[in-house]
């Protein structure tokens, strides 16, 4: 381990991905949900990939939340997650696709849900 | 482990009931109350990601009152609300300057809409933001965050005229520190999304 103590991420963002600037799959978005697949972790996994897997051990996270937790840019987490997906170590679920107009039923459920929170 | 001690990870993982993840942008200039609003309604302590600015933006240096002027990253705050029924709503605080355009477009991708926060003491600070939102085509509502020392003599008509809002764009006031008031502002946006030009088959 070559990390230094004190607040800063152990692995700089530009090294965390092993020099890769682009994920091997383009469709990982901020709100793509990542969860561990439960497959045994192979030896020799890069530290940053291990850290992401570790964060997913106790539950699912979006790419966004993983980035905040690991103090890495979203772009770096996309690369890491893609590497883990390629090895079947994580599962990914895409968010609701962008739409010119979202399903009115979905929007109504958002409104109802917000109202319900308000009266709590 | 240097990463993610368990004490800070508790509560951030998605609830098992999470099914549909959606996002709304909380947009506005620095200091308008974006993080305050997100903080008042979020179920998790607001987190942030460090986002890199595009090359072209690095030379521009107009971060009034913001430290570390030479920085080439910007922190984007976000929060989360798990709604009954399995919907998880993410709120992203997005700065409005022209130089954040590429970042804005990336974050806006797939968003339901935007709530544009306005400080009535400096309405002109929101012009850039409104321009960006207009150009993106993202539907939006405008919420005037009520600061204690803000002028109260503006009528809705004056604000609408000053902000050049379309007649059907919702304009509400809110207190970003107050959860119910913030939710009301979000509801004004979502109701607007439901009401605007219903699809033909409905």
CATH topology of chain B: Rossmann fold
- Residues in helices of chain A, as a percent range: 40-55%
CATH classification, class level of chain B: Alpha Beta
Report the end-to-end length of chain A measured between terminal Cα atoms.
47 Å
Low-pLDDT regions of chain A: 1-5
Task: Supply the CATH superfamily name of chain B.
Answer: P-loop containing nucleotide triphosphate hydrolases
| Averaged pLDDT of chain A | 85
Could you tell me how far the N terminus lies from the C terminus of chain B, measured between alpha carbons in angstroms?
55 Å
Show unreliable segments of chain B: 1-9, 55-61, 64-70
Indicate the radius of gyration of chain A in whole angstroms: 17 Å
Structural class of chain A: mainly alpha
From N to C, what is the helix and strand string of chain A?
A: HEHEHHEH
Radius of gyration of chain B: 17 Å
C-alpha geometry of chain B: globular
Mean pLDDT of chain B: 83
Structural class of chain B: alpha/beta
The share of residues in extended strands of chain B comes to: 15-25%
The CATH architecture assignment of chain B turns out to be: 3-Layer(aba) Sandwich
Count of helix runs of chain A: 5
Number of strand elements of chain A: 3
Structural features, described:
The complex is a heterodimer of chains A (120) and B (202). Chain A is mainly alpha-helical and 120 residues long. Chain A has one domain (13-118). Chain A contains five helices and three strands; from the N terminus they run αβαβααβα. Chain A has helices spanning 13-16, 47-55, 63-70, 74-86, 104-118, and strands at 33-36, 61-62, 90-93. Chain B starts with 5 loop residues before the first helix and ends in a 7-residue tail after the last helix. Chain B has helices at 6-9, 34-41, 55-58, 101-108, 127-136, 156-163, 179-195, and strands at 20-27, 47-52, 73-82, 87-94, 113-119, 140-145, 171-174. Chain B has a seven-stranded mixed β-sheet, with helices on both faces. By secondary structure, chain B is an alpha/beta fold. Chain B contains seven helices and seven strands, in the order H-E-H-E-H-E-E-H-E-H-E-H-E-H.
